[in-house]
Design goal:
- Helix content is 38%, strand content 17%.
- By secondary structure, it is α/β, with parallel strands linked by helices.
- The protein folds into 2 domains: 194 residues, 3-Layer(aba) Sandwich (glycerate kinase, domain 1); 238 residues, Rossmann fold (3-Layer(aba) Sandwich), CATH 3.40.50.
- The strands form 2 sheets. A 6-stranded parallel beta sheet has the order 3-2-1-4-5-6. A 6-stranded mixed beta sheet has the order 7-8-12-9-10-11, with helices on both faces.
- The longest helix has 20 residues.
């Protein structure tokens, strides 16, 4: 290795590089459309919506009109962003929606009405937009929507399934915002946080045709045993909440540009690792499944690579040649059991899917001396806590045991935040103002 950085410093540098590669200020300029004859209206939602709006404001011609409204998560407006920005930025709750999200959605939908064919709408979409663009169908209350979101998030459903349901119970998602913008030309700039980078899934595809159906949503709710109010369930079963499909209605808004993706960020991190004298490998940019189970697969690979270093036979494990960094992305899940849902708040575990991955990885690695790891969300927030993720080190289990932490117990109650906080191994970044989903890196000396 050519670098003199310590192991955790290397891992953090790779994470920072991945985030930097997805920052709107670094990627948006090359996608800029020409100003229209009429107005340019900016609408948007997501964890990166404010930073996207700020980047667009900075590069849009000063002598051409620009206005609009975007909604982002609380605390995700960059410092001083309001100063001189022509696009209004407001905040709402994520991942469970609140009244501010409803008000923002109503205002965004109202702004989309009354446009002409000479106008241009630039829609700025990123992960988190599904919860932030909350405008329930008639008859579904905000409290019902909040309960539904919470149940889906804890059910183990993947993001495609969750967003399928969200689209069919919304007045703005699943292409409905796109329809409202007609006849203006609509260009959507999206930062992908979903496996496969499908625009119809990112923030529940508010501006694109929806390939899923009411029947799909009903099947998902049945699969995970999530209940709706009877009247809403009946309407969904009867197809009354069907979303707009591809066709005439979308001829004005078929343009979607992915300005940042998980793969781009992983490639940037791999290039940095190579410059440090490490062999770099990307497992996948769209891994899904239970965080704890995905960690077991990663641990098995890392153990074998580490063993090959120590083997007197001198063999190499597959394509992985140490010293190396093994990278992966995607969106894993954490399923909370019914019993855990019914526990009091004081007993519930704290932490998100990155922390859960690290807990399971530490347990499976069982104090391997050549392996370090980091798992963190690229938006800087793991679940609803203040950390982005956590580190796993060769002495993680030993240090945990010395202060009375039972790794299996913490894993069973999904309490990764408390565990890694006690060890001083949380990755703390604050909001990064972008979001290309999970980032995982294992360093094998």
């Amino acid at each position: 290795m050519h670098t003199k950085l310590g192991e955790t410093q290397i891992l953090k540098a790779l994470y920072d590089c991945a985030v930097k590669a997805a920052l709107p200020s670094n990627v948006l300029k090359s996608f800029l459309p020409n100003p229209p004859k009429g107005r340019t209206l900016v609408l948007g939602a997501g964890k990166a919506a404010a930073s996207m709006a700020l980047a667009l404001n900075d590069i849009w011609p000063a002598d051409r009109p620009l206005s609009g409204l975007v909604v982002t998560r609380y605390g995700h407006i960059p410092p001083l962003a309001h100063k001189g920005c022509r696009i209004e930025m407001i905040e709402a709750a994520h991942p469970v929606p609140d009244a501010a999200g409803v008000q923002a959605s109503e205002r965004i939908l109202a702004l989309a009405n009354g446009l002409s064919k000479d106008d241009l709408v630039i829609c700025l979409i990123s992960g988190g937009g599904s919860a932030l663009l909350t405008l329930p169908v008639e008859g579904l209350s905000l409290e019902d929507k909040r309960s539904l979101n919470q149940s889906l998030l804890q059910s183990g459903a993947n993001i495609q399934e969750i967003n399928c349901v969200r689209k069919h119970l919304s007045q703005i998602k699943g292409g409905r915002l796109g329809i409202a913008c007609a006849p203006a030309k609509l260009v959507c700039f999206a930062i992908s946080d979903v496996p496969g980078d499908d625009p119809s899934v990112i923030a529940s595809g508010p501006t694109v045709a929806d390939p899923t159906t009411c029947a799909d949503a009903v099947a998902i709710l049945s699969k995970y045993k999530v209940q709706l109010p009877p009247s809403i369930q009946d309407a969904l079963v009867n197809g009354f909440f069907e979303t707009p499909k591809k066709g005439e209605a979308f001829q004005h808004c078929e343009e979607v540009q992915l300005i940042a993706t998980p793969k781009q960020s992983l490639k940037a991190a791999a290039e940095l690792a190579t410059s440090m004298g490490l062999n770099a490998y990307i497992l996948s940019d769209d891994m899904e499944g239970e965080s704890a189970e995905v960690a077991k697969v990663h641990a098995a690979i890392a153990r074998e690579v580490a063993k090959s270093i120590e083997s007197q036979e001198g063999f190499q494990f597959g394509a992985f040649k140490p010293p190396c960094v093994i990278l992966s992305g995607g969106e894993t899940t954490v399923t909370v059991s019914k019993n855990q849902k019914e526990e009091t708040c004081a007993k519930k575990g704290r932490g998100g899917r990155a922390g859960e991955f690290c807990l399971s990885l530490a347990k499976e690695l069982a104090s391997q001396q050549r392996i370090w790891a980091l798992a963190a969300d690229t938006d800087g927030i793991d679940g609803i806590e203040s950390n982005a993720g956590a580190y796993v080190k060769p002495d993680t289990l030993t240090r945990a045991s010395l202060i009375g932490l039972n790794t299996s117990d913490f894993l069973a109650r999904h309490d990764s935040f408390t565990y890694f906080e006690a060890l001083g191994d949380l990755v703390m970044t604050g909001p990064t103002y972008t979001n290309v989903n999970d980032f995982r890196a294992m360093l094998i000396r």
